[in-house]
Structures are given as structure tokens and as C-alpha cells.
Amino acid sequence: MELGSQIKRHRTERGLSQDDLAAKIYVSRQTVSSWENDKTYPDVESLLLLSVLFDVTVDELIKGDVEAMKEAISNDYKKMSVLATGGLVIAIVGAVAAVGGIGWWDWGIVPSVIIGLLVWGIGMAMLVRVEHMKKEHDLVTYRELVAYSKGEPIDRDNPKSQRARRHRILKGVALTLVAAAVGAVIGYFGYMFLG
């Protein structure tokens, strides 16, 4: 793979840090680092921005890495799909194990909760890995994820993408609190009806 070394060479020749380059082409520093270490590949839009910034053609920049990029994108997307589906299924199995162990299978409250939480935790870890992969590729909306899966340019300037990028941490905290409240209510009523 030559693309990562090409990006790094052109960046250092121009005296740019990874942060400087990231700001100029509208990605995160971690994204630039992933490109330079051949962990991920730039999308078409980023390649065009890089070629303009470095004053080279896209062909000169990628030098035969196109097929490797398509394969890497395809593999990453498949991995995200498998992890997302598997994580969701395992998390649901964990919740069913906890409720079923208490209500139907007479495992007892403590063993049921422990088994349920362990299985649910494995599923959630898989889902967290998917979110980490999306963050690596700077994918926030479903439209961006679909474009990425097809190797198409990712439009991060549309209103939905911009809105989704605002206050991500606050939204994550709010979503976590809402999920915890919903879980507490379901747990309370489950205990009242099953207990």
C-alpha cells in the first residue's frame, strides 16, 4: 500500500501536522492518522481534496491502491454489519435470559441477572465496536454509512449531517439517561408483575 506513505510524504513536505491537514480537508486527526498507517482509506471526496491540496492528480496519489481501498471498505462495512447484527441479537438474548430465568425457568434472581448481564454485556461490547468503527470513518448518519458501503463520496455538508455532528456528547449522555430510565421502568414493572 502506498497511499498512506504518499499522504504522509506530501503532508510533511508542506510542513503540515496531522491536525493541520485534517482541518484543511474537514476530517478528524484520527482519520488522517488511520490513512497514514494504512488502517483506513480516504473516501472519494477526501481524495479529491487531498489531490488539490497537494497539487497532484488522484492517480499519482493512489498509485494502484484503488482495488485495495474497495476491498478494505467492503470488509469494514461487512464487519460493521456482522458486529451490529450479532451485538443486537446477543444483547436481546441476554435480556431474555435475565427475564426468563427469573419468571419462567426458576434460576433465581441473582443467577438470572448475572447471566443476563454477562450475555447482554457481550452484545453491547460488539455494538460499541461498531460505533468505534463509524467514528474512525467519520460516519454519523445512515446516508453517510450507505455511501461509505458503496464507496461513493460522503456528503458531510448536508443539513442532516451537520445537525447530527452538533453536540454529539450531549446527545449521547441524554440518550443514555433516557435508556436507563426506560430500563428502570421496565425492570420495576417486570419485578412487580413477575415478583
Automatic annotation (TrEMBL):
**SUPFAM superfamilies associated with the record:** lambda repressor-like DNA-binding domains
Q: Which UniProt keywords apply?
A: DNA-binding, Membrane, Transmembrane, Transmembrane helix
Record-annotated membrane-spanning stretches: 82-103, 109-128, 169-194
Identify the SMART domains for this entry. Answer: HTH_XRE
Task: Describe the location of the HTH cro/C1-type domain by residue ranges.
Answer: 7-61
UniProt keyword annotation of Iron present: no
Q: Keyword Transmembrane helix: yes or no?
A: yes
Which Pfam family is one of those matched by this entry? Answer: HTH_3
| Any one GO molecular function term | DNA binding
Check the record and name the PANTHER family matching this protein.
HELIX-TURN-HELIX DOMAIN PROTEIN (PTHR46558:SF15), TRACRIPTIONAL REGULATORY PROTEIN-RELATED-RELATED (PTHR46558)
Q: Know the name of this protein? A: Helix-turn-helix transcriptional regulator
What species is given as this protein's source? Answer: Gordonibacter massiliensis
Lineage of origin: Bacteria, Bacillati, Actinomycetota, Coriobacteriia, Eggerthellales
